[in-house]
Design goal:
Blueprint (H helix, E strand, L loop, with lengths): L2 H19 L49 E3 L3 H11 L59 E3 L3 E3 L3 E6 L2 E6 L7 E8 L18 E6 L21 E3 L4 E3 L3 E10 L2 E9 L1 H7 L7 E8 L7 E9 L1 E8 L2 E8 L10 E4 L2 E4 L5 E4 L6 E10 L7 E9 L3 E4 L3 E9 L2 H16 L4 H12 L7 H17 L3 H20 L5 E11 L2 E11 L8 E4 L2 E8 L2 E2 L5 E3 L2 E7 L5 E8 L4 E8 L2 E7 L2 E8 L7 E9 L1 E9 L2 E9 L5 E10 L7 E7 L17 E3 L4 E8 L3 E4 L2 E4 L4 E9 L4 E8 L15 E5 L2 E5 L3 E6 L5 E6 L11
Helix pairs in contact: 1-6, 1-7, 4-7, 5-6
C-alpha cells in the first residue's frame, strides 16, 4: 500500500471520528419554509433563503465570508422547534447538553462626536422639586454620555445602594460621620409555599426589606436577616445536580426614587410550581420604590428565562440582557413570568441570521419602563452565535461574535460530497443512507447521521485500488485548496445592529469585518458611523505553513454596516491591549515587549490614517481621557524582556499627534501588584476638577528577580490607591486600607468600587464601606456590610 493511499484512508478515518464527536459543524441555511425577512438591511429587502433540504433537515456548512448576513424572524413555534432540533446533540427531549455556552456580553459605548469626555453616569443628580443645593457626587464610570451602565453600587448623593452577599444595603452616606445602614433588602420568595430550607435542598430568597438595628448607626442588622443558601438537589432529567440558590442579585439601576435590581434566580420548587425548568437559567428583575429609604417597597417583579449578564439605561428605559439556548420543547421561545402569569415570547419576536451557527444563543433584550406606574416590559430575542461582545450606543446595540473559515470543515464537506457523487453504493446501502438522512433529529443528530453515513462508505473507500484512492485524495485536496484560495481572511467578526428606542427593539442591519475584537472598547459609533478595531492573528495551515501574518486593523462601517474604509497592517506581530475612541481619534495600545501607543485620525471615515506613535516599556490595559489632549493609561510596567515589573499608571500628552509623549508615570515597587481597574472600567474613579484618581489595588506575598536571586516582598496590602493627578504629574496620596475586611487573603475580597459625595470618599469591598475625607484621606467611618454581625465597630 502506498504512503498516499494510507494517508487517504487515515483522512477518511479522521472524518469518521470527527463526524461522531465534533460540536462545531453548523448548518448555514435557515429552516425550511417561507421565512419573513427584515427590510432595509444592507441596501434593500432581503430574499428568503430556500430550505436546507426536504423536511427542514439542517446540514453542516463551513462559514463563507462572501455570503451576505441576512436577518430573519421565525413565523411559528414549529420553525423554532425545527431550529432547536437541528442543533441538539443529545438524544433527549430538550437537547440539553448539546447547546451550551453563552454570549459573554462585554458592552462598549461611544464618546460624543465633538470629542467631549463622557461624564460618569449619575454625576448629575435626579430632578428634584426642592430648592436644596444639589450634592456633588460621582456615578458609574460609563463610556456613553446619557447611557448608564448597571452596576453593583449606585448613589443619589444622599444614599448609597449596594449589593453584597445576596443582600442589598441602603446606606445613609452623607454626611460621612453619620453614615450607617438604614435598611437591607433581603431577597426571598413572596410566596411562602416556595420557601424551602437548606435541609430540603432549595432556598428562596428575594424581597423583604428590614431596617437596621443596633447603636450609633453601626449598621448592625438582626441575625435573622441573612439569606439562607440552599444545597444542590438532584435533577434526574438533566443528568446531574441542579443548584438551587434562590435569588442572586448582581447589579442595579437607580432612576429618581425607583431602584431596579437584576440577577440570577434558581428555585426548583418554584420551577415545579410553574411546570417549567429553565435549562439555561432564569433571571429576575425587581423594581422598588425607595422614596422612604428605610422602608423600600417592591412594586413589580419579572422572572425571565436566561442567565442575567448586564444592563444599560437610556432615558426612562432600562435594557436588561439575558442569554439562553434553543431547546426543543412544546413552547420553544423564552418565557417571561410577570408575577404569577406565565407568557411566552411570540415566535415573530425571535430573530436570527443566515450564519452557520456552531453555538446558537438567544440574546434576550428586555426594555423596562422605569418611571411608568406599570413598569411594563417589552422583549425581543436575537439568536447570535457563541460567546462574544455587545456594544451599545445611545440608540443602537451591536451584537458581535467571531466566525471562522475552518479548513477542516471545508475538507469534511468536500469529502462527503465527493464520496456521494463518485462512489456507487449497493441498492441496500443506498436505501440505508436515505433512511439515515430521513431519521428524526430527535433520534439521530446531524452529526450522528454523518458518522453513520461515513461508516457505510468506509468499506467502499478501503476497497479502492491504490491509484483510485490516490486520485480521490488528490481531487479532495485540489478542491479544498481552490476553495481556500478564494479567501483573503480566515477570521471575521459578524455584527448585528439592533435599534433601541424606548420600548421599541428592532434589528436593522448586519455586517462583518476581518479579525476579532478585544472587548467593549473595540467598537464606537459616531455620526452614524461604526468604527471597529480588530486583531487578525497568524493563521497556520494543516501542514504547518503560515498563511496569514498577525496584524491589527481599523474598519469604518456606514449605517447599513457596509464598509466605508479601513487601515490594515498596524503593528505587525503584536496584538491590541487597549483602545479608546474620542471624537475623531482612536488611541490604541499594542504590545509584545514594548508599548506602542498609537494615535489615529478617523475624521474621514473612508480613509483612516495613523497620526503618530510612542514606544515605551509596559502596556496599558485601560485608557481613559483626562482631556481632549491628554490620556490616562493603566496597565503593567515591563522590563526589556517583556516581563511585568509592577502596576503602572501613565499620562500621555497627545497635543502633538505626530509625537505623543509620556508626561508622567507611577509604578509600584511590588512586581505583582494589580488592580481590577485593568479589566473592569467601572472600578475606575476619576475627577479632573478634583485632581482625583482612585483605583482598587492589592498585593500579596510575591517578589522579584534581583540578578540570579528571587527576593520575596513583604509589603502586602488590599485597598484602594488614591492619586493626585493633573496634566503634568501623578502622585500617590495613599492607600485606603481594606485589609481588616479581607483577613489573611490579600487578594479577595478586594475593593470593588469607589465614589465621592461632596467632600467625602467612599470605597466599597465585599464586607466594608469605608468613608474618608477627600482632602486629607483621614478615616471618618467604617460601615460594615455584614448582616449577621452582633457588635460592629465603626472604625
Amino acid at each position: 500500500m502506498s504512503y498516499k493511499f494510507a494517508f487517504a484512508l487515515i483522512a477518511i478515518s479522521l472524518l469518521l471520528f470527527s463526524a461522531g464527536c465534533t460540536q462545531s459543524q453548523p448548518p448555514q441555511n435557515p429552516p425550511g419554509g417561507n421565512l419573513p425577512v427584515i427590510p432595509g438591511n444592507q441596501g434593500g429587502t432581503l430574499t428568503p433563503q430556500p430550505p436546507a433540504s426536504s423536511g427542514g433537515t439542517f446540514k453542516p456548512f463551513a462559514y463563507d465570508p462572501a455570503a451576505q448576513i441576512k436577518t430573519y424572524k421565525f413565523s411559528s413555534n414549529e420553525q423554532i422547534q425545527q431550529f432547536a432540533q437541528a442543533y441538539s446533540q443529545q438524544n433527549n427531549y430538550y437537547g440539553y447538553g448539546g447547546l451550551r455556552g453563552g454570549i459573554g456580553i462585554a458592552e462598549a459605548a461611544k464618546d460624543s462626536s465633538n470629542g467631549a469626555i463622557p461624564p460618569m453616569a449619575g454625576a448629575s443628580p435626579p430632578a428634584s422639586g426642592t430648592a436644596a443645593p444639589s450634592p456633588d457626587y460621582s456615578g458609574t464610570n460609563v463610556q456613553v454620555a446619557g447611557v448608564d451602565e448597571a452596576d453593583l453600587l449606585k448613589t443619589d448623593g444622599t444614599y448609597i445602594y449596594t449589593i453584597s452577599n445576596n443582600l442589598l444595603y441602603i446606606v445613609k452616606a452623607y454626611p460621612g460621620s453619620e453614615a450607617n445602614v438604614v435598611s437591607t433588602i433581603k431577597f426571598e420568595e413572596t410566596d411562602a409555599s416556595l420557601r424551602v430550607d437548606s435541609e430540603n435542598g432549595a432556598s428562596g430568597s428575594g424581597g423583604a426589606a428590614s431596617g437596621s438595628s443596633g447603636s450609633s448607626g453601626s449598621g448592625k442588622i438582626a441575625p435573622g436577616a441573612e439569606p439562607s443558601i440552599g444545597m444542590p438537589i438532584r435533577c434526574y432529567d438533566c443528568g446531574g445536580y441542579y443548584s438551587s440558590y434562590g435569588y442572586q442579585p448582581k447589579e442595579l439601576f437607580l432612576s429618581g426614587k425607583k431602584l431596579a435590581v437584576f440577577g440570577d434566580y434558581s428555585n426548583y420548587k418554584y420551577f415545579q410550581k410553574i411546570d417549567f425548568t429553565p435549562r439555561s437559567g432564569m433571571s429576575f428583575i425587581r423594581i422598588y420604590d425607595v422614596s422612604d429609604a428605610s422602608n423600600p417597597k417592591l412594586e413589580k417583579e419579572y422572572k425571565v428565562e436566561g442567565s442575567y449578564f448586564r444592563g444599560r439605561m437610556a432615558g426612562n428605559y432600562a435594557y436588561i440582557f439575558t442569554t439562553s439556548q434553543p431547546e426543543y420543547r412544546d413552547y420553544p421561545t423564552p418565557i417571561i413570568m410577570e408575577g404569577t402569569t406565565k407568557r411566552y415570547l411570540p415566535p415573530t419576536d425571535v430573530f436570527y441570521f443566515n450564519v452557520p451557527y456552531s453555538n446558537p444563543v438567544f440574546v434576550n433584550i428586555h426594555a423596562l419602563d422605569m418611571e411608568g406606574s406599570a413598569h411594563q416590559l417589552t422583549s425581543k430575542s436575537i439568536v447570535t452565535d457563541g460567546s462574544e461582545n455587545l456594544y451599545m450606543s445611545e440608540s443602537n446595540a451591536y451584537l458581535a461574535y467571531t466566525q471562522y473559515v475552518n479548513e477542516w470543515e471545508i475538507r469534511q464537506q468536500i469529502t462527503m460530497e465527493m464520496m456521494q457523487s463518485q462512489i456507487k453504493l449497493t441498492a441496500t446501502d443506498s436505501i440505508l443512507v436515505e433512511a439515515i438522512k430521513a431519521a428524526n433529529p430527535l433520534v439521530l443528530s446531524i452529526y450522528e447521521k454523518d458518522s453513520k453515513i461515513l461508516s457505510i462508505y468506509s468499506p467502499y473507500l478501503s476497497a479502492m485500488s491504490p491509484s483510485a484512492a490516490q486520485k480521490f485524495q488528490d481531487d479532495v485536496e485540489n478542491a479544498v485548496q481552490k476553495k481556500l484560495d478564494d479567501y483573503k481572511y480566515f477570521e471575521f467578526t459578524a455584527i448585528n445592529k439592533v435599534q433601541l428606542q424606548g420600548a421599541e427593539i428592532s434589528p436593522v442591519a448586519n455586517g462583518k469585518v476581518p479579525g476579532h475584537i478585544l472587548n467593549q472598547f473595540s467598537m464606537d459609533e459616531s455620526g452614524g458611523v461604526l468604527r471597529v478595531a480588530t486583531n487578525l492573528p497568524a493563521r497556520w495551515s494543516n501542514y504547518g505553513k503560515e498563511t496569514t501574518k498577525p496584524s491589527n486593523n481599523i474598519h469604518t462601517l456606514d449605517a447599513n454596516l457596509n464598509e466605508m474604509g479601513s487601515l490594515t497592517g498596524i503593528a505587525p506581530d503584536e496584538q491590541i491591549y487597549s483602545t479608546r475612541f474620542m471624537g475623531n481619534r482612536l488611541y490604541m495600545v499594542t504590545f509584545r515587549q514594548v508599548d506602542p501607543f498609537f494615535v489615529f485620525d478617523l475624521s474621514n471615515p473612508s480613509s483612516p490614517k495613523e497620526l503618530g506613535k510612542l514606544k515605551i516599556p509596559g502596556f496599558s490595559r485601560y485608557l481613559h481621557p483626562y482631556d481632549e489632549n491628554t490620556i490616562i493609561g493603566i496597565g503593567q510596567d515591563t522590563n526589556a524582556q517583556g516581563r511585568t515589573s509592577g502596576l503602572k499608571i501613565s499620562l500621555f500628552d497627545v497635543s502633538d499627534v505626530s509625537s505623543p509623549k509620556e508626561l508622567a508615570k507611577y509604578v509600584t515597587n511590588e512586581q505583582y501588584a494589580s488592580s481590577s481597574a485593568l479589566y473592569e472600567h467601572r472600578a475606575f474613579l476619576f475627577s479632573k476638577e478634583k485632581n482625583l484618581l482612585v483605583i482598587p489595588a492589592y498585593n500579596a506575598d510575591s517578589g522579584r528577580w534581583e540578578g540570579t536571586h528571587y527576593v520575596y516582598d513583604q509589603n502586602k496590602y488590599n485597598g484602594a490607591f488614591a492619586f493626585r493627578i493633573d496634566k503634568t504629574q501623578i502622585t500617590l496620596r495613599g492607600l485606603i486600607d481594606h485589609s481588616m475586611a479581607s483577613g489573611d487573603n490579600y487578594y479577595q475580597p478586594a475593593v470593588e468600587r469607589s465614589l465621592y459625595i461632596n467632600d467625602m470618599l467612599y470605597t466599597k469591598s465585599e464586607k466594608l464601606l469605608r468613608v474618608n475625607a477627600l482632602d486629607t484621606l483621614t478615616a471618618i467611618k467604617n460601615v460594615w456590610l455584614n448582616a449577621t454581625a452582633s457588635g460592629i465597630p465603626t472604625y
